[in-house]
Amino acid sequence: MVTGVFGECYHGYKIGDEITLEDFTHPPEHFCLGLAHALFPVIYALSFGACFPFRDNQRSLLVTCPDGGKLEFKAEILDRDGKPQVILKDPNFKGPNPKKMVIEVVKAKGKCTFGYKVGDKWETAGLKCIPGFCGAAFHTAFPALFALNFGAKFFFMENHDSIDTVTCPDGGNIVFKVTRSPEGDTL
Predict the structure, then answer these.
(1) How far apart are CA 29 and CA 47, in angstroms?
(2) What is the pTM of this model?
(3) Are 28 and 21 in contact, with CB atoms under 8 Å apart?
C-alpha cells in the first residue's frame, strides 16, 4: 500500500493505492520495475516467515521508492481472508542483531571473472557488504541474506537456515549457498 507521496510518480501511484501480488514471482501487469527491485528482498523475506521486530507489526516493512524517494510503500503479508498478518512489535527489541552469514560456492561451471571456485567461502554479519566480493554476486545473494537475517526459513531446503540456489547472473557460472549460522554465532 502506498503510505506516502513525496514527488511525482511516473506510474501515478497515490496514497492509499494497494498493489496485491499473489506471490513474490508474479508482479501485476505494468508494475513499476524500480518498485519491484526495492520490494523484492522484503516480499521474499516475508514470504518465508521473516519478522521485523522493530515494526509495530513485525510482518510488515516500509519500503521507499529507489527513484529519489518519491513514494513510501508498506509491504505486508495477507492471510487467506485477505487481512494483514499481525505479530505485534517485540517489546524486548533492543536494536539491530545482525546474524552471522556464510556465502559458499557450491557449483561452478565455465569461467568466473572473480575466479570463484567450489568451496570458496565468505563470512559477513547481517547485511554488511563483503569487501572485494563481486557486486553482481552480492546483488543476487542479497534477498537471501536479507530474508535469513530477519528469521526466514526455507522450508524446501534440507537445512531451513540456508538456500543453495543463489545463481550468479553472469551466465549462471557460479551457484552459491547462503547460510545463517546457528543462533548465538557472531563474527
Answers:
(1) 21
(2) 0.91
(3) yes
